[in-house]
Amino acid sequence: MTLYKPCCPADALRRIKMIPINGIPTGITMLNEIIAEVKEMNLNSEQQIKETLLKRVKVYNYISKGAEELYMKAIMAEYYKS
């Protein structure tokens, strides 16, 4: 599955998923699509999954270096829920 890229800001806005990061509702663009694509990759280790998710999420979302661990915890929770 190739990740569908939004055609415009309005399309990207429709692809935002709200997840709690450190207790604060935070919008992550393209999260559902990224999770689906990473699951199809059948990665072997949790570390590989984390690195791949973070790399792909950062394409569409700004994540400061200091907040990466908080984001990863929340994104991994969503990954395992789906």
Beta content comes to 5-15%
The average pLDDT is 91
Q: Compute the number of strand runs.
A: 2
Kindly report the spatial arrangement of strands forming the biggest sheet: 1-2
How far is the N terminus from the C terminus?
17 Å
Number of helices: 4
Overall number of domains: 1
- Radius of gyration, taken over Cα atoms and rounded to an integer in Å: 12 Å
In this structure, how is the largest beta sheet organized?
Answer: 2 strands, antiparallel
Low-confidence stretches: none
Shape: globular
Helix/strand-derived category reads alpha+beta
Roughly what percent helix? 40-55%
- Strand/helix succession: HEEHHH
Question: What do you see in this structure?
Answer:
By secondary structure, this protein is of the alpha+beta class. The chain has one domain. Helices cover 54% and strands 15% of the residues. It is built from four helices and two strands; from the N terminus they run αββααα. It starts with 8 loop residues before the first helix and ends with a helix. The mean pLDDT is 91.
